[in-house]
């Protein structure tokens, strides 16, 4: 396709997709060689994060030299706070799962432009797919089947566990925020709930993709997710179908009110004690 025929938004979207896909393929090769050569998990973790960061930042600097970048794997700079265009990237989301030779990990590339996420792609190399605003949606699941709530496999949020219990929902544990958001988009889960800690790079691309496809995405109190903030800590997220958002947010509100013993909330600040 001739790049000059694309509008700015389409060109950014195409760039986000190409970058996520290329980095994902490189990581997939790295992972399979490392598994073959019995490379220790902690070495593969560092190698994966560093190689994907290098690839994405080099290509972004070449393709969009004027834009700022916020990345999990690079030193943050205050320059991004005065920039109108900021690429928010997580070069390897689900690093733990990647290092264990699993397939639930992702590459996140999103563009924040003047207050909005305007482009995004989530590569799921373990599934051989890249999700973006053009991803076709599967048929909706049978509503008589139990509601499936995607949660972290290594640190499931107590709020998600409590919500699943009152909704009579099944918990579906998986690694990676992008993979869990992808499970909702791909129809493998009905919602993704996270609380207790996360950063802008964990959710920006998954949220950009999901919202462009018409899904609901917000903080767990229903307020908008705001990106390119001075502090990139963005600890919680609800991603679901629009028709489930109202009921889920009401139930979450009830749970937070009945369990709220500190200003940030028992479930919200990651300090929950069993
Ligand atoms: N309590 C917490 N504090 C900070 N980051 C968290 C977190 N819980 C999950 N995350 C981050 O969110 C991503 C998805 O986590 P999970 O697989 O547990 O759902 C991971 O990103 P990375 O793999 O990029 O570090 C993980 O580090
Ligand atoms: Mg991440």
Kindly describe this structure:
One of its GO terms (biological process) is sulfate assimilation. Keywords: Magnesium, Metal-binding. Mg(2+) 1 binds at residues 72, 92, 202. InterPro entries: CysQ/Inositol_MonoPase, Inositol_monoP_metal-BS, Inositol_monophosphatase-like. It contains 7 helices and 10 strands. It has 274 residues and is α/β, with parallel strands linked by helices. The protein folds into 2 domains: 3-131, Fructose-1,6-Bisphosphatase, subunit A, domain 1 (Fructose-1,6-Bisphosphatase, Chain A, domain 1, 2-Layer Sandwich); 148-259, D-Maltodextrin-Binding Protein, domain 2, CATH 3.40.190. A 5-stranded mixed beta sheet has the order 1-2-3-4-5, with helices on both faces. The longest helix has 29 residues, at 8-36. The radius of gyration is 18 Å and the shape is globular. Residues 261-265 and 269-274 have low confidence and may be disordered. The structure holds adenosine-3'-5'-diphosphate and magnesium ion (MG). Adenosine-3'-5'-diphosphate (A3P) binds at residues 72, 90, 93-95, 152, 154-155, 175-177, 196-198, 202, 270. Adenosine-3'-5'-diphosphate is lined by residues 72, 90, 93-95, 152, 154-155, 175-177, 196-198, 202, 270.
Q: How is this structure best summarized?
A:
The chain has 274 residues and is of the alpha/beta class. 39% of the residues lie in helices and 20% in strands.
Ligands bound, unique: adenosine-3'-5'-diphosphate, magnesium ion
Percentage of residues in helical conformation: 25-40%
What summary fits the major beta sheet? Answer: 5 strands, mixed
SSE string: HHEEHEEEEHEHEHEEH
Number of strands: 10
Sheet with the most strands: spatial strand order: 1-2-3-4-5
Percent of residues in beta strands: 15-25%
Instruction: Give the name of the CATH architecture of the largest domain.
Output: 2-Layer Sandwich
Number of helices: 7
Give the radius of gyration.
Answer: 18 Å
Terminal Cα separation, in Å?
55 Å
Helix vs. strand class:
alpha/beta
Fold-level CATH name of the largest domain: Fructose-1,6-Bisphosphatase, Chain A, domain 1
Q: What's the CATH class of the largest domain, please? A: Alpha Beta
Keywords: Magnesium, Metal-binding
InterPro entries: CysQ/Inositol_MonoPase, Inositol_monoP_metal-BS, Inositol_monophosphatase-like
GO molecular function: 3'(2'),5'-bisphosphate nucleotidase activity; metal ion binding
Protein name: 3'(2'),5-bisphosphonucleoside 3'(2')-phosphohydrolase
